[in-house]
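Allow me, if you will, to draw on your knowledge of protein folds for a short while. I have a record of one protein: its chain in single-letter code and its fold written as discrete structure tokens. I should value your view on which stretches of the chain appear to form regular backbone elements. Thank you for your consideration; the sequence and its tokens are set out here:
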Amino acid sequence: MNGDVIVAGRGLCRFYLRGSETVRALDGVDIDVRPGESVCILGPSGSGKTTLINLLSALDAPTAGTLTINGRRVDGLPENELVNIRRGTLGYVFQKFHLIPTLTVAENVALPLLFLGRKADPDALARVLDAVGLADRATHLPKELSGGQMQRVAIGRALVTGPRVLIADEPTGNLDSQTGGAIMDLFVKAVREEGVALVLTTHNLALASRCDHRVTLEDGRVKQGA
């Protein structure tokens, strides 16, 4: 096991007010994510999966607890600094593809580079497209793709910046089991060959079994013995 920790959460809590009631969406969760390893977050709807992944993604701030990304404590940082951390360290894949319909596959994949002020290197972009099985679809528009192909575009877009951590929230939720398995193959490849750390949420136990570690949540807490 790789001893380095790229994302570390300690005592993570996220509370919300619902009228006069305090909702404990996440209540004291510890989690470590290491390069070259995959962590799957499991649990029924309402268990805190999305809340946890939003915290680990630096898209939301914990009510209490600490979060460290790439050796830097990030809870409490201002948004402009969090943006730089998200852009420089993290890649995101969601259940919905969020592709721009007027851009080609290659242009959608290269889009994050624009936000970093970097010009897409044609050879590097070609390698990413090849890695996700879309080398022959580079000039196609999203409307010309299947659901599985669109998710491959989303994965390529997440990988093009060379992130150290890949965050995937229900990435196969809109796909059939065979296509979902093929998408999981891409994640496993990124972990094994590129040393990317993967954090994944899913309801699919077959996909979860392919991850190195599994964290099961129940009522906002880690379920012991799961």
